[in-house]
Amino acid sequence: MSSLIACLFLLISGFIDLHAPVSQSDSLQIQLDTTTIPQQKASVLLTLARTQQESNPQLAIQHYEEVLLLAQEMGDNNLIVSTYNEIGAAWYFDGDLQNSMKYYFMALDGLKDIESNYSQFCKIYNNIAWNFQKQKDFIRALDYYNMSEEYCRRSSQSAYVAHILNNKGVVYKDLKQYDKALSLLQQSLEINRQNEDIKKELFNINNIGVIYLELGNYKEADQYFLEALRSNMERNDHYEATHNMTNLGQSYYLQGRYKEAEDTLKHALKLSEVNRSTDQKHEALDYLYQVKREQKDYKEALTYYTQYHALEDSLYKHGQYTDLIELEAKYKVAQKERVIQESNNQLLRQRYLNTMFLSALIFALLLIGVLIWIYSTKKRNERKLISLNKEIDAQNEKIQSINHNLEQTINKRTKQIQEQNNQLREFAFMNSHNIRRPLSNVLGLLALLEDENDPEKIKELVFLANQTASEMDQIIQDVNIQLKEGEL
C-alpha cells in the first residue's frame, strides 16, 4: 500500500511540473485570434472558459461574458441561457454563491419562452440544488434535485439522470441516510458504466468511498478512493484527483495514521493550488489543521488554521446564505407574479374574445333581425301590392263596366235628348202658329180698343178679346198637359 501511494505521489508531482492546461489554453487562444465568424468565436471562447473555470474562474467569467455579448448580437436565446448557467458555475468555483445563484435564476428567466428545453432546466436546477447543498440546506437541495431529475428524464439523456442520482446520493449521505445514498449512487454508477462515461463513473466511486468512510469501513473506503485516484491521475484530471486524495487523507486521519494522512493532504493542498481551487484548498487545510493538532504540532496547526479561516471568509462571505435565500424568494415571487400576470393577461384576452364574440353575436342577431324585418316588410308590401293590384284590377273592371254603361247611358240620353230636341223643335214650330194666331188677334183687338169710342163696339171688342185670350189659355194648358205626360 505504501509503495502504491508513493507511486501515486510521484505521478502527481509529474502533473504539477507539466502544466498541461497551459498549452491547451495557448492553442485555443490562437484559434480565437484567427477566428472572425461569431458562431466559431463563441464556441472557442466557451471551450477556453471551461478549461479555466475551476483553476481561474474570474478569467473564465470574462470569456463567458464575451460569449454572452456574441449570443445577444446573434439573437441566440439558447446560447444566452446556457452562458448564464456557465457564468453561475464559474462564480460557484470562485466561492461567490450569491452571484452564482443570481446567474442561475437569470438563466431560468431566459427559459420562460422555451419551456421545452428540458436539458437546460435539468442543468440549472441541478446547479441551484448544488448551491443549497453547499450551504447544508439539504431539504432545499433535494427539492431542486427532484425538479432537476424530472427534467433530466424528460430530456431522455441518461447521462444527466446519472449525474442527478449521484448528487442526490451525496445529499442523502449528508443526511446520514446511507442505504438510500448507496442505492442512488449504485444506480448512477450502472448508468455511467453503460454510457462508458469514465469521469462520472469515478465520481460515483469516490462518493461510495465517502459513504464507507462515514460508516467506519475504512479498508473498503480506501480501496474506492485509490481506484478513483489512480484513474484520475491517468486521465490527468487534477481537480478530481485532488478530491480523491483529500478523502484518502481524511480516511488515514480517522484511522490514526497521521503521517500518511499528513503526506497525502499536503499533496492534495499542493495540487489544489495548481488547480487554483479555493474550495479544495479550504478542505485540505481543514484536515491538515486537525492532523497537526492530533500530532501536537500546534505551531504548524495554527498556520493551517489561520489559512483555513482566511479562506473561510472569502468562501462564505457574511450574510451570503441569507442573500441566497432572499434571491431564491425574490425569484419565486417573480415567477408567481409572472404566472399571475400571464393568467391575468389570458383572462383579459379571454374577456376580450368573449366581448368580441358577444358583440359579434349581438351584431349577427341584430343583422338577422333587420334582415327578417326587411324580408317581412318586403313580403307584407308584396302582399299589399298584390291586394292593391287586385283592387285596382277590380276597380278597373268596375270603371270599365261603368264606362261601358255610362257610354250606353250617354248614347241613350243623347239619343233621347236629340229626339226631345227634335220633338221640341217640332212642338215649337207647331205651337208657335197656334199661340201666335190668338195672340195676334188679342193684339189687334187691343189696337182697335184704343181708337174705339163707341161703348157697344168697345164691349164687343172686349168680348172678342176675352174669347181669343181664353183660346190662347186653352192652348197653353194643352201644352202643359203634354209636357207633364212626357210627350216632349
From TrEMBL:
CDD domains: HisKA
EC numbers for this chain: 2.7.13.3
Residue stretches of each TPR repeat: 162-195, 202-235, 242-275
Reaction catalyzed: ATP + protein L-histidine = ADP + protein N-phospho-L-histidine
Residue runs in coiled coils: 378-423
Keywords annotated in UniProt: Coiled coil, Kinase, Membrane, TPR repeat, Transferase, Transmembrane, Transmembrane helix
Domain Signal transduction histidine kinase dimerisation/phosphoacceptor: 424-479
Protein's name in the database: histidine kinase
InterPro entries in the record: HisK_dim/P_dom (IPR003661), HisK_dim/P_sf (IPR036097), TPR-like_helical_dom_sf (IPR011990), TPR_rpt (IPR019734)
Ranges that cross the membrane: 352-375
GO molecular function: phosphorelay sensor kinase activity
